[in-house]
């Protein structure tokens, strides 16, 4: 009888965001919110 056992160790580390990445993420969130607000206002207008 053969017993094969595999052990995996997974480590998750939080990435440190650079200043450039943080600015890009902030810009993307702002654009997303503006577009969402526009879609809501157009939807209510109809």
Describe this structure in a few short sentences.
The chain is built from one helix and no strands.
Your description of this structure?
With 46 residues, the chain is an all-alpha fold. The protein is 59% helix and 0% strand. It has a domain of 30 residues. The protein has one helix and no strands. It starts with 18 loop residues before the first helix and ends with a helix. This is YrzI family small protein. InterPro entries: YrzI.
Query: What's the Cα radius of gyration?
Result: 23 Å
Judged by helices, strands and strand pairing, the structural class is mainly alpha
Specify the biggest β-sheet.
none
Give the percentage of residues in beta strands: under 5%
Helix content: 55-70%
Order of helices and strands: H
Mean pLDDT: 85
Quickly list its features.
about 45 residues, mainly alpha, about 60% helix, elongated, YrzI, YrzI family small protein
């Amino acid at each position: 009888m053969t017993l094969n056992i595999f052990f995996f160790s997974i480590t998750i580390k939080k990435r440190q965001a650079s200043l450039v990445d943080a600015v890009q993420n902030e810009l993307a969130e702002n654009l997303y919110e503006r577009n969402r607000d526009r879609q809501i206002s157009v939807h209510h207008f109809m």
